[in-house]
Write a structure and sequence with these properties.
alpha+beta, Beta-Lactamase, 6-stranded antiparallel beta sheet, 7 helices, 47% helix, globular
Length: 186
């Protein structure tokens, strides 16, 4: 019995070590980019105004979840999704994306984690249950969050998501996530 327990504990310890090796921390150049440049994007007037307008709509969690289900069931890009890309905020994000080869996607979320604007269709509408929103919105106090680097099969690149708060004065009112190709950041 002791031997079996030791083998099981040893296997679990080894699995924990292996999974920790697979999870790669973002390089310092990404952390510096997040703190020194990307955090400032969350104070841009066009983004702040778009998030304030979306927050003022007062969507209920049920409405957000309904939109999320519809979003995930929709192939391609619906008119509602296209509107988020073509709004003033969406166009600003598009120009920002074109300004640097490492930006693969950029999207803005409201105070509940629902999409406000985006450069590309996201896999879901509601990000509120994910670390990228929770850690960057940070209960309204805001924080920069740099996720772990992951290999993306579809783009065949190492990607990291960097999320920063949208700030209205000293209060976080939403968040922005940048999908970044790690190998393209100089």
């Amino acid at each position: 019995m002791k031997k079996s327990l030791s083998l099981v504990l040893g296997a679990l310890l080894l699995m924990g070590t292996i999974s920790a090796v697979w999870a790669e921390e973002a390089p310092q150049k990404i952390k510096d980019l997040a703190q020194n440049q990307l955090a400032a994007v969350g104070k841009e007037a066009v983004i702040v105004e778009a998030v304030k307008a979306e927050n003022a709509k007062g969507k209920t969690p049920a409405q957000i979840k309904e939109m999320d289900a519809k979003w995930m069931a929709t192939p391609g890009v619906s008119p509602e999704m296209k509107a988020l890309m073509e709004s003033a905020c969406g166009k600003f994000l598009g120009s920002l994306q074109k300004s640097s080869p490492y930006f693969l996607e950029i999207f803005v979320m409201d105070n509940q984690g629902a999409n406000v604007a985006m450069t590309d269709k996201t896999s879901d509408y509601w990000q509120g249950d994910e670390a990228k929103f929770q850690k960057s919105f940070n209960g309204g106090s805001g924080a920069v969050f740099v996720d772990e680097v992951k290999f993306d099969e579809s783009s065949q690149a190492y990607l990291v998501q960097v999320s920063v708060p949208v700030m209205d004065g000293d209060k976080a009112i939403g968040a922005i996530t940048f999908g970044i190709d790690v190998d393209r950041v100089k």
